[in-house]
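Same chain as my last thread, 234 residues:
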Amino acid sequence: MATPILLVPGLNCTAEVYHNQLPALWRFGPVTIANHLRGAGMAEIAASILADAPPRFALAGFSMGGYIAFEILRRAPDRVTALALLDTSAHPDTAEATEKRRAAMALAGQGKFTLAIQQSFPNGVHPAHVTNPHLKALHTRMARANGPETYIRHQQAIITRPDSRPDLPAIKVPTLVVVGEADSITVPEAAREMATNISGATLVTVPNAGHMALVEQPDAVTAAMVEWLDAIKS
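reply #2:
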């Protein structure tokens, strides 16, 4: 039986962030990449996505997409048949992270969105990939496609997101947790915490990847997602 799959992009991401995974995922069922550009906070964004989503679906979220996935689970747990959390965290924002977000938002609001994009890239990838022109171009291309207004709105939604840690034990669907070994934004410890507190969850740590493991090591992430969906199918 086909499994509808809903993929939620992250901050400064378009559907292109999942480009490498799509050919492998389509054989399991119809794939929808969520429009996460509508709504002013996590609740509104999740409600907008749910309005367009299939009746039931396997759900995957990358980074901010993971925060949205937690909100989708809170609002419609019976519609989610499986869960993949990709380089994300159940934690709320720390004071330090919020301060950095507000500084980046200020740059974007001052017409310096390109600078904000440039400054965010090195922290988003493995140190070995900081000078990778293809990854840098992808990061810039996706961010510009969304634009500064969306960036500011999404950052505010991230800052005000709820703590999802109390919800983890209630997740009973097959769950995959993926993290880049050098992710400095949603760190491996946060991934281990999610995997430990979600019954039966599988944790995959991706070598030679930072926060953007989806595009830094696409084959490894795709293989993990295929195994996750294979397990559901069987």
